[in-house]
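User: Design a sequence. Structure:
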């Protein structure tokens, strides 16, 4: 029987992801992501900032933002700020200043719909931060080696930066910046990961595009439309005036 890959995505992945992020490798990844996000979120002002994708209240990555109201949302936890389906967000159009998608695209049954919903709720010039796994990395190689597998994060989508950037461009976003991290192989051994720490500095300098995880920042583009008043003109006659008949002397 052929197993449907979608069984490993969507809301059912929540418990497995929660367990994985509590492992040594998951904790290491979160700390790297937090360090990068602190720099980008420190300049994100506004009234409402929402993180979509939060398996645990400890995974609150919005702390460094000066936004007044910060909401954590996931479909699998009821003790967060907001429990809702990311495909149908219960938020008004043009009402949110910033959105953080924390590996939400990686485990979404319909990533296009998720991005459309995010675009809808963001205000003009609103910021979008996407944290995702990079398929062109040692992490992507591990995923292919085990044929995706049933356990997260290997069971999720690993969308390339090019693909995500194209989706955002179609929705009217401008790319602001990209950060890459985690150039080490995904090993659960803390000792080995510590010994391979040098790969982080080497990767940033030599092959930055091969980081296991990326953080993409984009802004919702606005088009200023200036109404143009119609210029009414009396159209010129297409045909010349009728020629009056002349009376000729008939002989």
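Assistant: Done.
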């Amino acid at each position: 029987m052929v197993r449907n890959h979608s069984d490993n995505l969507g809301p059912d992945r929540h418990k497995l992801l929660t367990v994985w992020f509590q492992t040594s490798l998951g904790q290491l990844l979160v700390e790297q992501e937090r360090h990068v996000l602190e720099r980008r979120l420190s300049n994100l002002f506004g009234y409402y900032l929402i993180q979509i994708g939060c398996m645990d209240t400890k995974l609150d990555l919005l702390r460094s933002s000066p936004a007044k109201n910060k909401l954590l949302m996931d479909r699998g936890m009821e003790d967060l700020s907001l429990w809702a389906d990311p495909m149908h967000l219960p938020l008004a159009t043009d009402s949110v200043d910033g959105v953080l998608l924390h590996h939400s695209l990686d485990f979404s049954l319909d990533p296009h719909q998720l991005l459309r919903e995010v675009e809808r709720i963001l205000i003009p010039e609103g910021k979008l931060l996407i944290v995702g796994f990079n398929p062109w990395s040692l992490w992507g190689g591990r995923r292919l080696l085990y044929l995706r597998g049933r356990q997260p994060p290997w069971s999720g989508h690993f969308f390339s930066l090019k693909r995500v950037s194209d989706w955002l461009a179609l929705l009217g976003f401008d790319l602001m910046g990209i950060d890459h991290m985690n150039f080490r192989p995904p090993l659960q051994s803390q000792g080995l990961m510590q010994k391979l720490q040098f790969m982080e500095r080497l990767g940033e300098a030599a092959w930055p595009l091969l980081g296991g995880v990326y953080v993409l920042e984009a802004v919702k583009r606005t088009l200023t439309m200036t109404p143009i008043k119609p210029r009414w003109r009396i159209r010129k006659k297409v045909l010349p005036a009728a020629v009056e008949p002349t009376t000729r002397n008939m002989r």
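The two ends are 106 Å apart (CA to CA). The chain has one domain: 5-220.
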